[in-house]
Write the structure tokens for this entry.
Amino acid sequence: MSKVAIVTGGSRGIGRGIVLGLAAQGWSVAVNYRGNAAAAQETAEMAAAVGGDTLIVQADIGTAADRERLVQETLSRFGHIDLLVNNAGMAPRVRMDLLQTTEESYNEVMDVNLKGPFFLTQRVANAMLESSATSSSVRPAIINIGSISAYTSSPNRGEYCISKAGMGMMTALFADRLAPHGINVYEVRPGIIETDMTSGVTEKYNKLIAEGLTPIRRWGHPEDVAGAVVALAEGAFPFSTGEIINVDGGFHMRRL
Ligand SMILES: NC(=O)c1ccc[n+]([C@@H]2O[C@H](COP(=O)([O-])OP(=O)(O)OC[C@H]3O[C@@H](n4cnc5c(N)ncnc54)[C@H](OP(=O)(O)O)[C@@H]3O)[C@@H](O)[C@H]2O)c1
């Protein structure tokens, strides 16, 4: 029986890297996206080139009915789910100072980055518990893509930071609740990664990285994050759960 994963926001950026990493290891992957169908199609073609079987599912992770449809379509195509990667996420549409930001922006970012992943994890965990069908070669797992913003203050995108801090506790909660059922839960916490999300701040981060912001002086790439996700998904850490894997060039270290 094949190994089956859902990767939310799997169509571009870090999510695409994760889809391709899993596909190369023989996973069947539901590639979720919200608006850019062409990018999702391109990812599916790239996955097929390395032998991966994919299902493209348009769904807004912030919307309950869409999340349910994502799970249903995955189950009807592949029969079971071994892995959920909560990767879809968004920055505020407009970066606004903490003293000006709006409830509309706050609600949208929290819906997509925290509430959606919380209830999708709840839904998929229940499907994992109900299903007797799993891949024989991997244990079921859930991997959340967090951020250094969980503990790094950026007052011009506070709602993003709060959503990622919440994801840290979400990881601990589901890890605790699901451990007795043999489902490990992890958080992969990227630093500055070269994707569309960071394309608007290239110059700023080029300078900061060159000045030594990160001990490893380069941008991270989607493959850096995918490498950690694939290792976790393939079961390299069976006695670890609730664990945070920093993929940030060493940003998280305190230095003098
Ligand atoms: N880039 C970084 O430096 C960095 C650092 C730390 C953490 N992260 C986190 O890593 C994750 C991926 O980031 P990225 O840089 O790869 O972002 P990205 O390049 O902007 O790609 C975002 C992906 O998420 C999808 N998406 C966005 N909102 C969605 C929604 N409501 N429902 C379903 N899919 C949705 C997008 O689909 P469409 O194309 O259809 O919109 C796209 O596939 C995010 O959670 C982000 O917070 C990124």
In short: The pocket of NAP is lined by residues 8-9, 11-15, 32-36, 39, 60-62, 87-90, 112, 145, 147, 190, 192-193, 195-198 (CB under 6 Å). The chain has one domain: 3-247. The chain has a mean pLDDT of 97. Residues 186 and 218 are 25 Å apart (CA to CA).
